[in-house]
Specification:
With 210 residues, this protein is of the alpha/beta class. The chain contains 7 helices and 9 strands, in the order αβαβαβαβββαββαβα.
């Protein structure tokens, strides 16, 4: 904790984002978060976190309450590590479920949540033994013209790619405007340029007046 705070102060950063996942959310997690939060606030700094619904039973209410805001990682419901379960890893319905869970059941205020969206996708099939692949959004729309307007794409070898195209990204931004305070992107290097840019879609949709 002392080393983390020293780095934040040294480089005049805004704070620390705690992105501990899986088995790293252990019996020491709450104590670590509480002590880190106190140390950062004593320097006028923020403490935030990356959280996901698939770790929901590992987060204590006390730990979640410590954060200035949380980035809800609404992606990776499946992936290359789970080839037997092909399909969307970050559907709009997943985003609704995730924000409802953390907002309603865990009572995290709307202004303290952002919706995490993926700039990448996963491809599966056609056989269950086929090796699943990952591609970032830029690679997808560059390789397959028109893919920016869809959420899945059948590749020449029969694999089906699942990702977030422009229409779904617009819907997710609208959802985030209603049930969260913004959008978190993982990650920006996966974006395309020009009219196919998801970041531009997020910016334009997010700033539209009702």
């Amino acid at each position: 904790i002392n080393n983390l705070v020293a780095e934040v102060v040294k480089y005049n950063l805004d704070g620390v984002d705690v992105d501990l996942e899986g088995s790293n959310i252990d019996e020491y997690y709450e104590k670590f978060v509480v002590e880190l939060g106190a140390a950062l606030r004593s320097k006028g700094k923020l403490i935030t976190a990356a959280i996901a619904i698939y770790y929901k039973d590992q987060f204590t209410d006390k730990a979640l309450a410590e954060y200035d805001f949380v980035n809800v990682m609404s992606y990776d419901r499946t992936g290359p590590w789970r080839p037997e379960k092909p399909g969307p890893h970050s559907a709009y319905e997943h985003a609704v479920e995730d924000l409802n869970y953390f907002g309603l059941e865990r009572k995290i205020p709307t202004e303290k949540m952002t919706l995490g969206v993926p700039f990448y996708g996963y491809g599966y099939g056609p056989e269950i033994t086929s090796k699943a692949i990952s591609m970032n959004y830029r690679e997808i729309v560059t390789t397959f013209p028109g893919a920016e307007s869809a959420d899945q794409w059948t590749m020449p070898d029969g694999k089906i790619l699942y990702y977030n195209g422009i229409p779904t990204m617009k819907k997710k931004v609208q959802l985030a405007k209603e049930k969260a305070s913004g959008i978190m992107v993982w990650q920006i290097l996966g974006d395309a340029s020009g009219k196919k840019s998801l970041l531009k879609v997020i910016d334009k949709t997010g700033n539209q007046k009702k």
